[in-house]
Each structure stands twice: as structure tokens, then as C-alpha cells.
Design goal:
single chain; 158 residues; 2 domains; five-stranded mixed β-sheet; four-stranded mixed β-sheet; 4 helices; binds zinc ion
């Protein structure tokens, strides 16, 4: 059962404080904030009669601050010969997630040869990657939340 959390309800400390008529655009990735959520909606349709301001979106900010919502560690003998393929799946998940929630992103992928560490902007996105890797490649996966359920450590091993 995937756990879905709404960012607006979640009170993410990175969300900008804005009036209901305001629209913000992230200068880094182009995400648009209005009606208390970030999306990839096109701006011209929204700007009529609204104040548009520039605000770094939480995903870009978290990437910039190296403040991940999740860290996924991949390890095991199966990983090394199949790494390319597994990371391809991870990238595909990112592309898919971005269409639904532009704040679900990969901050970094660190290849340590025998293990890989992936940092993501949100905990649920890290959880999703863990589930998708296990679905495709089996293996063992563990999920550990901390920091008031806003941070997850995912470990996959095969
Ligand atoms: Zn952004």
C-alpha cells in the first residue's frame, strides 16, 4: 500500500508563504506555484490578474541545500553487472514522477562501484523507487522513516 502524502497538508518548511492570488515561478526549473501546490502547468493560463513572483521551488532548494527527503542505497552482487539497467529504471521513475508532482526528483546519484547512493527530494519518491526496483529485480528492501516521517532511508540488496 503506497503511502501518499499531500505536500500542502504536510506543511513542508520549504513551501513559500504566499497570498491566494499570487503565482510563483521557479527560475531554475520552471515549476509554477499556485493554489498551494507546485505543478508544471503552463504559466500564461494562470497569470491573469495575479501577482507573479520568482521563488525557488522546494525541489531545487533541497537539491541546492543537499537536504534530501530520502536516501536509497543499492548494494549486493547482483547490482554491479546490472547497474546500468537499474539506474535506467530509476531515471524512468523520475521522469514519470515529475509529470505527477514536479517536486519528486533525484538530487544525486553517487556510484561507489559496489554500491550506489541515490538522494531524492521527497520521502515518498524514495519509497516508490525502492518499490519499483524490488518489483523489477526482486531482492530485499527495507524502509526506515525518521525526522517526523519526513525522511526515509531505503536499502535495497540483492
Ligand atoms: Zn525548481
Amino acid at each position: 500500500m503506497p503511502i501518499r502524502k499531500n505536500l500542502a497538508v504536510h506543511r513542508d518548511p520549504y513551501l513559500p508563504l504566499m497570498g491566494p492570488k499570487e503565482v510563483a515561478v521557479c527560475p531554475t526549473c520552471g515549476a509554477v506555484y499556485h493554489h498551494k501546490r507546485w505543478s508544471m502547468e503552463s504559466l500564461p493560463a494562470l497569470v491573469k490578474g495575479r501577482t507573479v513572483r520568482s521563488a525557488i521551488c522546494p525541489a531545487c532548494q533541497k537539491g541546492h541545500d543537499s537536504f534530501p527527503g530520502g536516501i536509497i542505497t543499492l548494494s549486493g552482487e547482483f547490482l554491479v553487472p546490472n547497474k546500468e539497467q537499474i539506474l535506467h529504471l530509476v531515471r524512468n521513475e523520475e521522469a514519470r514522477a515529475k509529470r505527477i508532482n514536479p517536486l519528486d526528483r533525484i538530487i544525486s546519484i553517487k556510484d561507489n562501484l559496489k554500491s550506489v547512493e541515490i538522494q531524492t527530494t521527497s520521502d515518498r519518491f524514495a519509497q516508490r523507487i525502492g518499490m519499483e526496483i524490488q518489483r523489477a529485480y526482486k531482492g530485499d528492501v527495507t524502509y526506515n522513516w525518521s525526522r517526523d516521517d519526513k525522511f526515509i532511508r531505503v536499502k535495497w540488496h540483492r
